[in-house]
Each structure stands twice: as C-alpha cells, then as structure tokens.
Amino acid sequence: MKTLILYYSKYGTTEACGRQLADKIRGSVEVLNIKEASIQKLKDYDSIIIGASIYAGTINKEVKRFIAEAAEILQEKRIGIFLCCHDKQKGLGEFMTANLPDWFLEKAFVKAHLGHEIKLEAMNFFERGLIKHIIKVKESYSQVDSVAIENLAAEINGWEKVDG
C-alpha cells in the first residue's frame, strides 16, 4: 500500500504528528506539505491522509482549497483526516463539519484528533496575546496524543486499536 500524508502546519505540530504517524504506517509512506503537493501526484497513492490544524474554529484555506481542487481524485482514493486543535470534542465534530465538504467526511475511513501544542515563542505579539487571553496559558506546552497517533496508524494499517 502506498500512502501520502499531506499536512498544513503553521507552527510545526501538525507536521510533527504527520511524520510520527508515517513512522508507524506499513508500506510506502510519503509526508508532504500541502503547499508543495501536486493534485496529479495524488494518482500515485492508494491512501491519502490529510493533517490540518484549527485556528479560531477554521481549517487553513490552503487545505480547503486543495480538497476542493482535488475532489475528483480524492473521491477515488482511500482518504482520511487528522486534526490538531485545542478542543478535541469540537475538533471531531463541529470543526470537521464546518470546515470539510460532506462528501469528504462521508468517504473518510479515518478521522482523528491528535492533540495540540501551544508554542508561544513561535507566535507573533498579537497571536501570543490572543492565545494567553483565550486559552489562559502563560507558557508553551505540548499535549500531542501519542496513543491517538498509534490508534490512527493501527486503523490505517487495519490493526487493532492500542489501549490508552
């Protein structure tokens, strides 16, 4: 099986999750920034997993655009999605529904939330202030869910889920 993991990552968390996931998937796996991906290249893969982050309830416009432009090819593939965001419940429900086309959500054989990180040092002054005010954090932290990554890999591979 040939798998492509496409991601968009503003601060590096979604990319890191995609690379950790790739290390756990059997077969040939390529990890690629969605900004560098060619729609025609999708034809070379059996499975395509898209990783995105949520900011203020919204998936990056590059991810939305790519899914819209690649819809015809994606509908012929085994597809999945993982999100990195602060709110797991909203991420797997409201945020996916609000940001992804119905056909994509119906076709996706895996949907996962892989946690999140707050990297205050990577943010500009405005972003830092906003995050500190909204989420009430004073320092950077990581809540990337390694068990969720293992479980997603297991689903992709057809293995049993890892207990967590």
Description:
By secondary structure, the protein is α/β, with parallel strands linked by helices. The protein has a single domain, classed as Flavodoxin domain (Rossmann fold), CATH 3.40.50.360. Helices cover 40% and strands 26% of the residues. The chain has seven helices and eight strands. The protein has helices at residues 13-24, 61-69, 71-74, 88-99, 102-107, 125-134, 146-157; strands at 2-7, 28-33, 47-55, 58-59, 78-84, 110-113, 115-118, 141-144. The strands form two sheets. Strands 1, 2, 3, 4, 5 and 6 form a six-stranded mixed beta sheet that branches. A two-stranded antiparallel sheet has the order 7-8. A hairpin with a 2-residue loop joins β3 and β4 (58-59). α1 (13-24) crosses α7 (146-157). The longest helix has 12 residues, at 13-24. 33% of the residues are buried.
What are the defining features of this structure?
164 residues, alpha/beta, Rossmann fold, 6-stranded mixed beta sheet, two-stranded antiparallel ribbon, 7 helices, 8 strands
Summarize, please.
This protein is an alpha/beta fold and 164 residues long. It is built from seven helices and eight strands, in the order βαβββααβααββαβα.
